[in-house]
Write a structure and sequence with these properties.
6-stranded antiparallel beta sheet; alpha+beta; elongated; 5-stranded mixed beta sheet; 16% helix; disordered N terminus
Length: 341
């Protein structure tokens, strides 16, 4: 994994959100305005000469000055809480891209895009995401389950006053806490940003972006990984049977994350390296059906099978899919896995 500039060392931070999928979400980013302030154009001033009695009355009227402070509650921090769809978001801080990964709340049907330099942990019965020292973090709470906070005061941070969701601030020991209220699926939640005062300027843009891009996610029960299909009929040819056997060995190794067995089915070591992502411990696979395309496929030198599967990520996201497993003959005339796509 590549190394990135530390978030805590950032000085004046300009933050831009970059979607890592093909579908952009510019509308949401424009609406939230997280991490950036639009510069207002300065009006031109009429030239006047002090004491000049010929100056027109209009030129003597002071010109209004532009202000960079938005009107209170003029912007929406969270335009819409969307359903998580395995999309991705990167943050850019001082020109350095900060990769993130989706991280689900362990108690609530919500999740955030967590920078790789931060961690998820438990904090006073809630899921928290923040710095490794656990001194700066964000949490969510369902308002219906929380008692009214008597320590909450009207919010005064000028960077946050523009947001409609900004509810107030409070102190907890040496931490400053900024509070926001929002709705997801008609349920009201409270987001809290906890920060040490001396680190707030560097971390606030990151935390605001995490809150702004919160997504809805209901974690389903885990799937049962393994092979749940009957091998297809490939005929009586020894070559066909060997192609099927090689394919089954590959799928079995894939299912159990057996790297040695998986590598033995590949036509080249280079291909085995390229397909290592399939054995990623973050994913579990349930293989449901294997269909023969052809041995060989008509008009080609390769054999092919379709493998249908259900995949579950470590965060609990499930999707169904199909890969094509292609095989080519090696120098010994044996069918070996040539690609999985």
């Amino acid at each position: 994994m590549s190394k990135h500039k530390s978030l805590l060392g950032a000085g004046c931070i300009a933050l831009v959100l970059v979607l890592s999928t093909g579908c952009s979400d510019a509308a949401k980013q424009d609406a939230s305005g997280a991490g950036s302030t639009a510069a207002a154009a300065q009006p031109s001033e009429a030239a006047t000469v002090p004491g000049d009695s010929t100056a027109s009355p209009a030129s003597a009227v002071p010109q209004p000055t532009a202000t960079a402070t938005p009107a209170p509650q003029s912007a929406t921090l969270i335009p819409e809480v969307r359903d998580y769809s395995e999309s991705g978001i990167d943050y850019v801080v001082d020109g350095v891209k900060i990769p993130t990964a989706f991280s689900a709340d362990q108690r609530l049907p919500l999740g955030v895009f967590l920078p790789e330099s931060m961690v998820r942990y438990e904090q006073e019965g809630r899921t928290a995401w923040g710095t490794a020292d656990k001194r700066n973090y964000i949490t969510f709470v369902k308002l219906g389950l929380a008692a009214r906070d008597e320590n909450l005061e009207p919010g005064m941070d000028p960077k946050l006053l523009k947001y409609k969701e900004y509810t107030g601030s409070k102190r907890e020991g040496d931490q400053r806490v900024e509070v926001f209220v929002f709705k997801a699926k008609d349920v009201t939640y409270q987001a809290e940003i906890h920060m040490l005062e001396q680190q707030a300027d560097a971390l606030l843009p990151i935390f605001i972006s995490m809150v702004s891009n919160v997504e809805s996610f209901v974690k389903p029960p885990p799937i049962k990984p393994g092979i749940f299909f009957k091998a297809p009929d490939v005929g009586t040819s020894q070559g066909n049977k060997q192609a099927l056997r090689e394919t089954m060995d590959c799928i079995e190794a894939w299912s159990t994350r057996d790297q040695e067995k998986f590598a033995a089915t590949m036509i080249t070591p280079k291909l085995e390296d390229a397909l290592q992502f399939l054995l990623d411990e973050k994913n579990s696979y349930q293989f449901n059906e294997l269909t023969m395309v052809g041995i060989p496929i008509e008009g080609t030198k390769r054999a092919g099978f379709y493998i249908s599967f259900t995949r579950m990520t470590s965060e609990g996201y499930i999707r169904d899919g199909t890969y094509e497993i292609s095989l080519l003959k090696n120098k010994q005339g044996e069918w070996k896995i040539a690609n999985i796509d």
